[in-house]
Amino acid sequence: MIRRMVVLVLAAVLMLPAHPGRTQDAAPATQVEDIIVTARRSGAPMWEITQDDRTLILVGAITPPRELEWRPDALEAATLRADRILFPQQGRASAADVLRLIWRIRTISNLPAGTTTADYLEPEWQARLEAVMASERSQRWRTTNFVPLSIDLLNDKAGFSRRTSAGPDDVVRRAARRARVPVTPVGIIRGDELIDGLINAPPSTYAPCVKAAIVAAEGGPEMTLARAEAWRRFRVAEVAASPIDAALDVCWPWGDPEVAPLLRGQWDEALNQALTQPGVTLAVAPIRLLARPGGVLDALEARGLEIEGPEWRPITQPTGDAADSGV
Question: Which tens digits make up the pLDDT trace of 144-183?
Fold first, then answer.
């Protein structure tokens, strides 16, 4: 368990895809009427923002399960149009960060001595966790800290870790390599920033994460596949509202109260900067970052932009007299 946790955390620190320099300050807001947002329909939802000689293509990415088949043609074509590509943040861990992680891995892996999950979860949630973990031979999960426990719930029970051979990020990277298009992370998160919360935050900090992971685990791999099918068919609101995305939004690192503002702030700065650069910028971003309430697409709409393409907002049903009358 400890060795697995070291691997998982190091992978997360080093995969948060280094930014060679600081992003410049965003330019002043441009005239709204000069910007039009359209969508490129493909196996991955995409939105295109164009202003004069500046274009930003937003790709809503997920980690698709192995069973999903989708067509990457339009995504490949969009990548070949790009002059530059933005990817999610990259974690940068120093040797001191790695040694500190290994030194404190028991703190990260285990709940405080003498406590179990039942000491931090309400009886209803503990009962639901018991049901999800009923098939486990070992009872070690009862004393596992909430970050690694949530990772196990999402990967082992909800089937989140089962990937296709080519997710949207893989498609973009391969096409970019062939076309020699530069790929740049939107920013860097230092290893000490990522590790501090794991070491110092009390278990209660990640209780919402475990609860969200329990909900995802209850849905099982079938729910994960249904989410991917919704993604493939451009039912964006359905994807953004899925238990998987709800868990990813409150689990580490996006659920870390110190790291989350850095992650979102770097994305906002990079996308604003992209709208000031001539040519085509393609950004591969988590779909929940784009489509969640108050996310990137909502922010674009709030600026008065006309957005055409996959609908990302939940479809509201008529209520009251209007519903009764069929209006």
Answer: 999 999 999 999 999 987 655 578 999 999 999 999 999 9
**CA distances for 76 relative to 50, 61, 166, 327, angstroms:** 19, 14, 12, 42
Task: Give mean pLDDT, residues 270-296.
Answer: 94
Strand ranges for the chain from DSSP E: 36-39, 46-51, 54-61, 84-87, 90-92, 183-185, 188-190, 279-286, 306-307
pTM of the prediction? 0.82
Q: Is 320 left (phi over 0), alpha (psi -120 to 50) or beta?
A: left
Render 57-122 in DSSP notation, one character per residue: EEEEE----TT-----HHHHHHHHH-SEEEE--EEE--HHHHHHHHHTHHHHHBPSTT--GGGTS-
Q: Which residues contact 323 (CB under 8 A, 6 or more apart)?
A: 317
For residues 217 and 135, the answer to whether their CB atoms sit within 8 Å is no
Q: Which two tokens stand for residue 262?
A: 């850095």
Look up residue 323 and give its two tokens.
């519903």
201's CB contacts (< 8 A; 6+ apart) are 256, 257
SS3 54: strand
CB 132 within 8 A of CB 218: yes
CA distance 324 to 3: 59
Q: How much is the CA Rg of the chain, to the nearest whole Å?
A: 21
Burial of 302 (0-12, 13-18, 19+ CB in 10 A): exposed
Burial class (CB in 10 A: 0-12, 13-18, 19+), 160: buried
206 close to 249: Cβ distance less than 8 angstroms: no
Cα–Cα separations (whole angstroms), residue 167 to 42, 67, 162, 232, 315: 13, 12, 11, 11, 27
